[in-house]
Hints:
Elements: H1 2-8, H2 12-19, H3 21-26, E1 34-38, E2 49-53, E3 64-69, E4 77-82, E5 89-92, E6 97-98, H4 114-122
Antiparallel strand pairs: 1-2, 3-4, 4-5, 5-6
Amino acid sequence: xxxxxxxxxxxxxxxxxxxxxxxxxxxxxxxxxxxxxxxxxxxxxxxxxxxxxxxxxxxxxxxxxxxxxxxxxxxxxxxxxxxxxxxxxxxxxxxxxxxxxxxxxxxxxxxxxxxxxxxxxxx
Length: 123
């Protein structure tokens, strides 16, 4: 995050606020995306299916990217994100998927924004 802030000229605190936008909007009662998972018992070929719909506001489509990566010390992965943000969701070569869902706890507290955890999960 510090590297992103330095390279972009965006103050680190502002960049962090953007990455925590969904958690901050939750307090205002705004919700969005949904995910679905289907276990091997529910598929014709015995594979797990993972799906996500991206409910975002108008104008974001021009900033959406799919990022394939092959880290030297972690499984390869493909992930979705928007320009200027860390990964939003993805799947890795080890078969782990990490997606976001807008079903929030009513007792949410200060913690780590989920966008910071997606990359860790894929590693």
